[in-house]
């Protein structure tokens, strides 16, 4: 009863009215599509009959789909790990510079992250071109045999991860740098008085203070990396022989290009568990950092 | 004395190694961009040739690839479409986000805290989970292959994020400011426009930048929803129509990709600090 009365106060009513466009958007274009996707995934290819979990069962037994799952997991965990390591090293390095230089280097590093990913991946596509381009030319100059970058499964996977690390490291650096700046300098002074060397200060001051932001950033990145579409679509289109597909690109290939909307929806829904787990821990981490 | 000197050299040494690390990263980050630019100014003969250093223009620079881009391709059509869609999607998304963030941060009603958490969760829902049902929904509305359909789907990626960071900026505004305005008899809408928006301007700039950059860069939705040139936007247009089979097309492709990147990069260069503060606020504040 009090709840009803509170929500009828003019202040609350205005608040609800102001949120109305947002509610319509979220319900109509995020929540409804999500459940609609579950419904779609239970139809046959022509969307004329209800087949229940048939599509999911088909996918679980389908060798190509298993390949997609394995590759998505390898891609995500390798890329997120490398981005975190490189981002951390870069943040420490920039933080150690004199202040005026920090701004410049931070700005330069972030350009990779600001460019539309599908377009910068085109640049990488050209770099990986085997006969006329830069990468194999460099290898030959160094006396290493040229590599079939995008036509060999191993090197194609390597290439997609490399582009993701190139694109994502600046984001990690920015998050870590902001967190480094928020560590009170007296912690380092106290550690120095106790005679801690640089490694010990890193181990006992920096890392514990950054633990939460490292976890949140890695979880965030797990979601966006896992759900990535642009890199694989532009660089390899999932090839050679479907070895570099991620959930997004495979679902696009089946659902939009292949015209099997239900199967495409089923593929994309398989992302949900890992997304939900990441989201749960992000929420916990963010709540903890506010307190 | 000896001790001081050795400490100073050690400091200089470690600073030098730090510059080496940062320099290597800078080369890694900038190399693709520079190489794209170099390629876009090379003649086809030089790109085709197997002699010479690929990073240098050794046989004369040319603007042919850019000229061809404007005269022989639909690049300008894509550019116009992207500009229209990105600007309108930004305006729509910002209107929705500002109203909602104000309502949620100040005019508390039942469940507004839980709703804020819910918004944070929807901002974690990726495009690649939604594009198939949205493709069907857009189709059933008869909007497939119409660029305006993008105005319907872009806000799904933008609004939750912008609302979330604006809640953080609005919540930091001191209560006394609005109480003073209330005493003067201002309505809630007047208060939003006269008090909140000016004070939270850095947050507004950051959110607007994100909305614009995300709309400009969106690739999956146009790939799924648009299939003819006159409705297509830059990302999907450059990727799907400038890639042609057997002829050497690299110069034109790089010219198109670089020009298409330019607007978000220019905005970023001038408004970098807002961008970075918004980025860090998005993940931690709220």
Give the overall pLDDT of chain B as a whole number: 88
Superfamily at the CATH H level of the largest domain in chain B? MetI-like
Count of strand segments of chain A: 0
**CATH class division of the largest domain in chain B:** Mainly Alpha
Cα Rg of chain A = 24 Å
The helix content of chain A is: over 70%
Number of helices of chain A: 14
The largest contact between protein chains, plus residue counts on each side, is: A-B, 98 and 97 residues
Strand content of chain A: under 5%
Strand content of chain B: under 5%
Compact description:
Chain A is mainly alpha-helical. Chain A is built from 14 helices and no strands.
Keywords:
heterodimer; A: 291 residues; mainly alpha; MetI-like fold; 78% helix; B: 286 residues; globular
Please describe what this structure looks like:
The complex is a heterodimer of chains A (291) and B (286). With 291 residues, chain A is mainly α. Chain A has one domain (65-290): Orthogonal Bundle (MetI-like fold). Chain A has 14 helices and no strands. Chain A has helices spanning 2-8, 10-40, 54-61, 63-95, 99-114, 117-127, 134-141, 153-181, 185-193, 198-226, 230-235, 247-257, 261-269, 272-290. In chain A, 43% of the residues are buried. Chain B is mainly α and 286 residues long. Chain B has two domains: 2-64, no CATH class; 73-284, MetI-like (MetI-like fold, Orthogonal Bundle). In chain B, 76% of the residues lie in helices and 0% in strands. Chain B has 14 helices and no strands. Chain B has helices at 2-40, 44-48, 64-72, 75-105, 112-122, 127-140, 149-171, 175-183, 188-199, 201-217, 220-225, 234-241, 250-270, 272-284. In chain B, helix 1 (2-40) packs across helix 13 (250-270) and helix 10 runs antiparallel to helix 13 (250-270). The longest helix of chain B has 39 residues, at 2-40. The radius of gyration of chain B is 24 Å and the shape is globular. The chains are: A mainly alpha (291), B mainly alpha (286). Chains A and B meet through helix 1, helix 2, helix 4, helix 5 and helix 6 of A and helix 1, helix 4, helix 5, helix 6 and helix 7 of B.
